[in-house]
């Protein structure tokens, strides 16, 4: 959602900030889990319950956010809903260029073949990218950050 709702010029920034907040959340969790803070046996329930606060905030606020404009236009075909969502997210103004970009993306996706997992593994053009993704994911899992 965060990667789809900003204007095109800010999408890279929005996507990279989500990674930053993931890392920040892990660091805060590790710091607050220290014995000196919330890591003692008596405070352990408070540490576990602290995960519920952001979830509660999200549960309460998400109904007030509009659906993603690309989702409304590309998947639901609702051009008016897309325009309303864009106005709500980005304010009043002329946003026809962004809507045209979404329509171009929809036309491009229509001509793109969706591969199954087995077809993707068998496709030689994607082999090195798959190797890299598997190696990077395995490295992150085996580096010990989850054990810490």
TrEMBL record:
One of its GO terms (biological process) is dehydroascorbic acid transport. It comes from the Eukaryota. The keyword Hydrolase does not apply. It is a multi-pass membrane protein. Residues 1-148 form the Major facilitator superfamily (MFS) profile domain. It is found in: Membrane. GO terms for molecular function: D-glucose transmembrane transporter activity. InterPro entries: GLUT, MFS_dom, MFS_sugar_transport-like, MFS_trans_sf. GO terms for cellular component: plasma membrane. Keywords: Membrane, Transmembrane, Transmembrane helix. This is GTR5 protein. It comes from Mionectes macconnelli. The lineage of its organism: Eukaryota, Metazoa, Chordata, Craniata, Vertebrata.
């Amino acid at each position: 959602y965060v990667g789809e709702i900003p204007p095109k010029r800010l999408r890279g920034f929005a996507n990279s900030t989500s990674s930053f907040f993931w890392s920040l959340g892990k660091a805060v969790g590790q710091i607050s889990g220290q014995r000196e803070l919330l890591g003692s046996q008596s405070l352990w329930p408070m540490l576990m319950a602290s995960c519920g606060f952001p979830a509660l905030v999200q549960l309460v606020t998400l109904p007030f956010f509009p659906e993603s404009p690309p989702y409304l236009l590309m998947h639901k075909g609702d051009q008016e809903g897309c325009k309303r969502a864009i106005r709500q997210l980005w304010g009043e103004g002329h946003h026809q260029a962004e809507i045209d970009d979404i329509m171009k993306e929809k036309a491009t996706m229509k001509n793109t073949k969706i591969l199954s997992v087995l077809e993707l593994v068998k496709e030689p053009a994607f082999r090195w990218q798959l190797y890299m993704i598997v190696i990077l994911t395995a490295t992150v899992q085996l580096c010990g950050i989850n054990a810490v």
